[in-house]
Amino acid sequence: MIVAERKPFDEIKHMVSGYKKVLTVGCGTCVAVCLAGGSKEAETLNAELNLAFGKDGPEFGSDTVERQCDMEFLAALDAKVGGYDAIISMACGAGIQFLAERFPGKPVFPAVNTSFIGVNLDVGWYEEKCRACGSCVLGMTGGVCPVTLCAKSLFNGPCGGTNQGSCEIDKDQPCAWYQIHGRLAAQGRLDRIIEISSPNDWSNQKPRKVIQPGYGERVKSLGR
Amino acid sequence: METRPFETKHLDKWRSNLDSCIRCGYCYEHCPVFKDTRWESNAPRAKMIMVYGLLAGKLEPSTYISDKLSSCFYCGRCNAACSSGVPLTDIITDAKRDFQGTGFETPGTTTGTNTDCALCLACARACPHEARDFINGKIVTDTVKCQSCGICVDICPNQAVATNLSYGTDRSSLNREISTFLEQETAKAIVFGCNWSYYPDLQSSVMDPAEELEYKILINMCGGRLEKPLLLEPLLQNAWGVLVACCPDGDCEHDGNLKAKIHVAGLRELLKEMDIEEDRIQLVQVAHGDKTGFQAAIDTFMENLNKLGPLNHR
Question: Which of these, A24, A25, A35, lies nearest to A2 by C-alpha position?
């Protein structure tokens, strides 16, 4: 899932200063799961803002949609947004942009910082696992991502800084290639990392689009 | 769903000593369920009479009886107050065991989860009683294990968890109480007190004080279920301050005091950022049953609050 953290209160407060009616929109999926932007957090933020601004401050409303990255769920806000002169989004960067795209006449402000794609280790504890590089090598690396977990995102074994299982940047940071070697050795698959991997193409990055097989015609018919 | 017939399988062990309940009624005044409704049928004594009826075959099992027996917050104050040493909450748990899986099973005060649930599993991980589980694609509450502490209510990011029968402990009821109290001119503070440890019973509390109190004590079932917006609500309604009372470290069965400490510390930090005196929100840990200590903490808090003055002077 996408993991986010709430922005410092002062930063959010500063962004919405001067507006009269502000709608705080929570997102009920990834950012809710990581306890950063669900309906509870939206309500809490509004209570905090109300207290900070006092009676003469903006009026804050709130709503939470299932996902801000789906236009059908955003449609539920169409009738509501007209009554507000600014929007706070508690979704990830994708949701915030989709919300801003749907309501181009309204200033949209982020209330969270999108951190990473990660896993849920325990309540409130998350770890990055994927950088969305677009060229997954996990099949070759025993399910350990060298792009995310190696400080240098190396594709062909560890650097000289590997130190008894740890990374040179921090002894508490495991060396990804040490882990990759260990797992593949245990599975008898070390041959998978003997071949030299060509580097990923990091150049000329632009926003990527994914159209799943079988959906091309549908996308074309939508004219987008 | 497949159900099984009701049997007094777990209750049977109480058959020989249930008579030790002499119906004195000392348990009444301590029970938060009774205190909310003032219904005889909600008092711990009534629960024992119902169990007696079920064991004697004089009462037929029903959802009504199951509802009554499942309405318990496990504060254990009835056990402590019982003149005959009847372990009421153990008996109530066995009654819940016998009703579980039958067509009469009802959720009572246990928590339920609605369709806003994002399946984040935070409640299942945080439940101190291992009462919430992910089964067949849904979060399910074990009505026997759940002790209605409300830790799951506080942690749910989508506000999808609620106590089925809250008996005045839910947020909207508490918000109503806050609004009603703060309408009074003399009202200054809200004190959230935990039922588990020291909430004054009816006999020792002053029902009709000669002077209006400057503060109101609101029962919550555990400090761990005090959600942040609830703690801010009094301040939004121009209260001068909020005092949160919870159990000392290690004394809370649900570790709810740890949650309360985190929330209050976070809010104090926030007040500081807003240039509001952080002492307007305070937390105090009071030992079980220490009514004098509780009162002393309230008095100190109020004394300090009176020095700070009203919040709306800003």
Answer: A35
Nearest by CB: B274 against A35, A44, A52: A52
Q: Is B299 an interface residue toward A (CB < 8 Å)?
A: no
| pLDDT tens track for A103-145 | 999 999 999 999 999 999 988 899 999 999 888 999 999 999 9
Which one-letter amino acid corresponds to residue B116?
D
- Give the three-state DSSP class for B217: strand
CATH of segment(s) A2-116 = 3.40.50.2300
What pLDDT score was predicted for residue B75?
Answer: 86
B314 CB neighbours in chain A (<8 A) are 54
**Hey, where are the domains in chain B?**
11-99, 111-163, 171-313
A54 CB neighbours in chain B (<8 A) are: 312, 314
**Can you read off the two tokens belonging to residue A9?**
């209160």
Chain A CB contacts of B274 below 8 Å: 51-52
Q: Give the CATH fold of the B111-163 domain.
A: Alpha-Beta Plaits (3.30.70)
pLDDT at A188: 95
**ipTM, two decimals:** 0.88
Q: What confidence tens digit (pLDDT) does each residue in A121-130 have?
A: 988 899 999 9
CB contact under 8 A, A43 and B229: yes
- The residue extents of the domains of chain A are 2-116, 131-193
Span A181-195, pLDDT tens digits:
999 999 999 998 888
Residue B175 in contact with partner chain A when CB distance is under 8 A:
no
Q: Are A145 and A114 in contact (CB under 8 A)?
A: no
Core vs surface per residue A12-49: b (16+ CB within 10 A) or e: bbebbeebeebbbbbbbbbbbbbbbbbbbbbbbbbbbb
Task: Give the residue from chain A lying closest to B161, CA to CA.
Answer: A40
Å between B186 CA and nearest CA of chain A: 21
A59 touches chain B (CB under 8 A): no
Angle, helices B228-236 vs B256-273, to 10°: value is: 40
What is the distance in angstroms between the Cα of A64 and the nearest Cα belonging to chain B?
9
The reported pTM is 0.90
Residue numbers in B near A48 (CB within 8 A): 232, 270
Averages of pLDDT over runs of 10 residues in chain B (314 residues) are 92 91 90 90 96 96 97 90 94 97 96 95 94 95 94 94 93 94 94 71 54 85 88 95 93 87 94 94 89 90 96 64
